[in-house]
């Protein structure tokens, strides 16, 4: 429910600032871009310290407080008519989400037996990412009850469905807080030795967590492997709409092709997450992680070489499958290999690095494609496409495959 609230908040905010006559009507593209930017950038700075807090204080109290604060913030948006204020709300939502996530990730290994950890992480990650399409559909479905409410409250005319989405969003966070509040406190308190009279220094705690990652080969390989994997995998996300346009001839067909590829990679992601537990009972988990990265990389390379949407779909599915398998395995191995007192900082470092990798990759791969430009090689029978989009996507897949090779060697 909390993940559903996260996605719903993003969709509703984007819709709110792009409404005709709304706060972002002067330049809707600028307003939408600002909202999304303020959802990403704060986490790059606050994320590591969120892990410090998760390892220092009562995790149950942190999660409940973050959910309640998010509910209050999102419910007040219908009365916010300043774009700057909306940016601050968006940034605050991201900071609170960053506080919630490492506390949750660090708690899961304490709530289940070791042989159930893989399944628990499967359920956790599937619920996080599977709520994405439900949130998008919910924003659209709320138009129906909003239509009736606009008849009763004329002031809601034109924005009723978005306002209703904000209130529904607040309810999801309050529901999450009510459930987390029932968890046993003894399982949600960080097992940290406290020296009497010693003053707490957040920077010291942060450096301790980074030293742990650097000195533990397994943990370092998992964290760095995930960072590099997201850098390479982001090529499919950022270049997908342009690449889809090369596979069909019409703009409407390009939109449909891009949507088809998104569905394929999403189904592959969920399938990989679901299959990870079955694979872990037959193979060493340490082997599943690098193989998942390599499968994703080879599949991304395959996508870049395809010339039709029908041929690209199975490769796109396999790219998502490899990524989903590696992702669940990463969480499980980190939960097993990291002691409780450092777990929050480890997961926070993982998430912050992934955000930075995505941030760089989403901007970098299109820039590379643009710098290369569009080129073709004509023969008597064929025209070979050497466009920057294909070359950049091929490079992203190769980068992902090489990160899997590196992880396997480590």
Description:
The chain is mostly helical. It is built from 14 helices and two strands. The protein folds into two domains: 2-189, Up-down Bundle (Growth Hormone, Chain: A), CATH 1.20.1250.20; 208-409, Growth Hormone, Chain: A (Up-down Bundle), CATH 1.20.1250. The model has no long low-confidence stretch (mean pLDDT 78). Helix content is 79%, strand content 1%. A hairpin with a 4-residue loop joins strand 1 and strand 2. Helix 1 packs antiparallel against helix 2 (28-54), helix 1 runs antiparallel to helix 7 (160-180) and helix 10 packs parallel to helix 12 (309-337).
Query: Overall mean pLDDT score?
Result: 78
Could you give me the name of the CATH homologous superfamily of the largest domain?
MFS general substrate transporter like domains
The figure for the number of domains is 2
Strand order across the largest sheet: 1-2
Specify the oligomeric state: single chain
Tell me what portion of residues adopts beta-strand conformation. Answer: under 5%
Descriptive terms for the model:
mainly alpha; Growth Hormone, Chain: A; 2 domains; two-stranded antiparallel sheet; 14 helices; 2 strands
